[in-house]
Amino acid sequence: MQRLEENTILVEPTPKIKLINKTANYEFTIIVPVFNEEDNIYTLEKKLSEFVSKSSLSACVLFVNDCSTDQSKDRIIEVCSRKNHFYHLSLKKNSGLSAALKAGIDATWSTYVGYIDADLQTTPKDFHLMIPYVEEYELVMGNRVKRDDSFVKRASSKIANGFRRFMTNDGVSDTGCPLKIMKTDYAKRIPLFTGMHRFFPALIQLQNGKVLQVPVRHFARVAGKSKYNLRNRLVGPFIDCFAYRWMKKRYINYQIGENNIG
Fold first, then answer.
1. Which among 94-108, 158-172, 214-228, 234-248 has the top mean pLDDT?
2. For residues 102-111, average pLDDT
3. Beta strand extents in the chain (DSSP E only)
4. Residue 186: pLDDT above 80?
5. Cβ proximity of 81 and 56 under 8 Å
6. Looking at the domain covering 21-149+174-192+204-224, what would its CATH class be?
7. Which whole number is the average pLDDT over 118-142?
8. What is the pTM assigned to this prediction?
9. How far apart are the C-alpha atoms of 120 and 44, rounded to whole Å?
């Protein structure tokens, strides 16, 4: 630093450093957002381990603990301490699914980043069905063709998906399916807002990315409790659609051409 006067100090700016972590050693990082899913953690360990060992892409798992109030965090740390290719981070306060996903994406430096819920209603095995398409498409996502849910859940999801599709024109029939694989550089440009996770296809398309839906399996929840009800299945998505429409009109999408900075 350089002293100019007795009470004036000029501080030279510190260059920004791109933080690279262990996920950079892999081709594919699977983000698992967790909020109060203690009864599912050990089963998740088994199923994700099976996938990682057989994946055609070198893969790792990143648990994102959304400030759980049960034993989820302790069990996640336990699992990561004994398993190679398993990592974790915890949010300081409960921030919701969109924030947990964004935190995981921001912490990922593999070529591809994926997402699966901790409720075990989908299986990591179905990532095998999606991986063959990841080079051609910026987002490959599951489509739960036969949902093992109650009538109320299926009906509310159908209504919400129909309205969202009308508002966004993304052409996606099941945006709520938690099985997704994105090219990480596209995922990192997705803006953070509450309800963001419902608009991954539309937000990728705003970047001129291509989206593919692949049929996947769906199972009944066997442990833990659903975090969704009629209000956050219908009212929240309804409001978020208008927020998306507002943002779409103001979205800036640019590409850098010739430069000499790096």
1. 94-108
2. 96
3. 2-5, 8-10, 28-34, 59-65, 86-90, 112-115, 139-144, 180-183, 211-216
4. yes
5. no
6. alpha beta
7. 96
8. 0.78
9. 7
Domain ranges of the chain: 21-149+174-192+204-224
Beta strand 180-183 with 139-144 is antiparallel
Question: CB under 8 Å to 140, separation ≥6 — which residues?
Answer: 130, 131, 133, 134, 180, 181, 182, 211, 212, 214
Full DSSP string of 76-101: HHHHHHH-TTEEEEE-SS---HHHHH
Q: What is the pLDDT of residue 1?
A: 43
Q: Which pLDDT does position 150 carry in this prediction?
A: 53
Take residue 122 and report the two structure tokens written for it: 């989908």
Residue 211 CB contacts under 8 Å (≥ 6 apart), including other chains? 137, 138, 139, 140, 141, 170, 171, 172, 201, 204, 205
d(CA 193, CA 99): 8
Residue type for 79, please? V
**Residue 22, strand partner residues:** none
Find out whether 116 and 51 touch, Cβ atoms under 8 Å. Answer: no
